[in-house]
Amino acid sequence: MSPRHTKLPDPMPKPQEGGCAATRLILDRVGDKWSLYIIATLSGGSRRFNELKREIDGISQRMLTLTLRGLERDGLVSRTVFPTIPPRVDYELTELGGTLLQPVMGLLKWAHDNQTIIEDARLRFDEEPEQDQVLIKGVVYQRR
Length: 144
Hints:
By secondary structure, the chain is of the alpha+beta class. The chain contains six helices and five strands, in the order ααβααββααββ. Strands 1-3-2 form a three-stranded antiparallel β-sheet. Strands 4-5 form a two-stranded antiparallel sheet. The chain is extended and about 65 Å long.
């Protein structure tokens, strides 16, 4: 592998620099378990709460509420309440949230395309103890 394949596109900020902590908070938001799926689902247009819940398999009502609030707080999703009885609430991506679609969809596609390869790598890794370790009856011991 040549050095050009390992070079990062832009210099990474040092962990002690102020921007790194802010970046970490943002990545924690968009990289949590449910945010990517909500963003991907809202790419098709606005949805009501129960539509989102039905379309995102496995998400609880509480996690959907908390994740939507976090995305709204970060300016990625907007919440519109219509004065009807019962009240109607729609969620949609903001302009800023829309800019996330390309990287999010790319990441989801990459994960989908490589899930078998990654699972095979995990199995190989778990089956082979490291050189300074020995596997005895399913337990890995460190050699001294």
